[in-house]
Design a protein that fits this description.
single chain, alpha/beta, Rossmann fold, 2 domains, seven-stranded mixed sheet, 11 helices, 7 strands, 48% helix, globular
Length: 321
């Protein structure tokens, strides 16, 4: 759908989605104008519900960071984030390895998580924007909402490891407003960014921890979110062991893992969703539900980039003390 079509459609008129309209206009004017096509397709296929959600997604940024003018700052971050992924994917196709697959966590922190030129310039905001502008991430959001947020049995505490931009916790709190939140991240840039997002959303019942969850036990929690995390750690087994210890006996955990998906801070390469789900079962979890999503333009490839998302609970809660 062209920008003219977007503006002329009464249900998607610019006055009802001005931020989205401006974002698309700026994106089409950039060197990476091809990135507008998937968004146009989402608008055409999903209609008003998608447009409203994408507009709210951009409104969160505008409210949280008024000093970053929309749409240009957002387009710059989004295109740079995509550019870096394309570069990593080209190398992955040549070598079959992630560039940082033998790196320590300290080395990844030096290159990415402690690097303001990465985190503040494009990483956090670019990743945040993908949730409504990459079709497979939008599908992930729908699964997360339907299977984790809406089906959550209830509780008092929510914890997110690797909070990053804060989007997943914020979406959870739209329904479960009164839960006490603990957010952890190894990057001070992520903590500052997500804390600003929470503050601008009026959420005051959250504490933020600059900490490596692999090096310390965390308090028990009723809901645990680990999105975009498992492939970022050198020892995914240890992460799952820590999660099993932190999750309350009747609690639920949402976790994703990238498969054959190169990115500058991915260190653990998973080759299939079966490998990921088997690993979770080995560490004492029951997979309550799961969804494997393939990049829509890469379906015909032999080993396409994918993401597997799942809702987990303890396989034997009666043994948890």
């Amino acid at each position: 759908m062209s920008q003219e079509a977007l503006s002329s459609d009464s249900s998607l008129a610019s006055e009802s989605a001005p931020l989205l309209t401006d974002f698309l206009g700026a994106l089409r004017s950039s060197f990476f104008s091809f990135l507008a096509k998937p968004i146009d397709e989402l608008i055409a296929n999903e209609g008003r519900d998608y447009t409203r959600a994408a507009e709210r997604h951009l409104e969160r940024l505008k409210t949280a960071f008024p000093g970053k003018p929309l749409p240009n700052a957002a387009v710059e971050a989004y295109t740079r984030f995509n550019q870096e992924i394309l570069r990593e994917e080209l190398e992955f196709k040549k070598t079959g390895r992630y560039a940082m697959d033998e790196a320590t966590l300290a080395e990844v922190c030096e290159k990415v998580y402690d690097n303001a030129e990465v985190m503040e310039a494009y990483y956090l905001e670019g990743l945040y924007l993908t949730y409504y502008f990459w079709p497979h991430h939008y599908e992930l959001v729908q699964y997360y909402t339907a299977q984790f947020v809406d089906q959550f049995p209830g509780g008092e505490t929510l914890t997110e490891w690797g909070v990053g931009h804060g989007f997943l916790s914020l979406l959870f709190l739209e329904k479960w407003k009164d839960m006490k939140v603990s957010a952890y991240d190894i990057s001070r840039h992520s903590i500052a960014y997500s804390e600003q997002m929470f503050t601008s959303a009026g959420i005051s019942n959250a504490t933020f921890h600059l900490a490596d969850i692999l090096e310390q036990p965390c308090p028990k929690t009723d809901a645990l979110i680990c999105g975009e995390l498992l492939e970022h750690v050198p020892d995914p087994n240890l992460l799952l062991q820590r999660a099993a210890a932190a999750l309350a006996p009747e609690g639920r955990m949402f976790m994703t893992a990238a498969i054959n998906a190169a990115q500058e801070d991915h260190v653990t390469l998973f080759r299939s969703d079966t490998e990921v789900l088997d690993l979770m079962r080995e560490e004492g979890f029951e997979v309550e539900s799961s969804l494997t999503i393939t990049h829509p333009n890469r379906v015909e490839e032999e080993a396409p980039p994918q993401v597997v998302a799942c809702v987990l609970k303890h396989a034997h809660p009666e043994n948890i003390h």
